[in-house]
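User: Fold this; tokens only.

Assistant: Input:
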Amino acid sequence: MALLLAEPLAAGAMGVAVGGVLALTGAGGGVLAVPLLVLLLHWPLTQAAPAALLAVGLAASLGALQGLRADLVRWRAALLMGGMGMVGAPLGVALGQRLPPTPLLWGFAGLMLWLAWRQWPKANQATAFLPRKLPPCVVDPGSGRLNWTSPCARAMAATGTLSGVLSGLIGVGGGFVIVPALMRYTDLDLRQIQLTSLAVIALVSASGVSSAALHGQVRWDGALPFAAGAVLAMWLGRRWAEHLPPEVSRGLFALSCVLVSGLLVARSV
């Protein structure tokens, strides 16, 4: 009986860690979820990816609903990116079934190192004081809405498609793509970017989980407690997110990515 309960309890505890990261950053939950399931529960990547998507998707849905109530989610941008991501996610699931697992793990480890560099607080200080070009998506000061131009729509659509393919392939919700893209292509403030990212993650994850379930790749006995822990942490974590300095959360997340990347490489050797 103890052995039967050990894995669901461990999955729930790991879900809490993933939901906490997602609540504080609006991104990165899936990037940590997959390595945790692979390393600690010894799940194959094809089972870890949809479980991560389920947890991240449900937790992101909760955060997005909170953002919608506060009128902070840019829902038109979220629908465009989420719609394109929902198209790309099944493609990523199909690719994941055909690619060998070891190169995927190495690629994932490299992705985490790149993400760690991007998230490190001092990474972009050298360009912090350079003049910034006007992004393609800017907020109209009169209406408070984004001005939708062709370059803006193309940037949003491409971002959504890429996040969808990666979500289906390696079980990430796409926030690590969406948040930097919104920071680059829009002039939205950080809270709006994070909450809009959560809305997109929720849509993309729903498509990826549905596709994986149709292929019989979801281990519900571990995925459900994992998701429950993530949702609980998201509900609690959003209350603290506004009070934590962004440099602290980004630095801790970067260090976690480096550690997990090293463990993934060691496991695959």
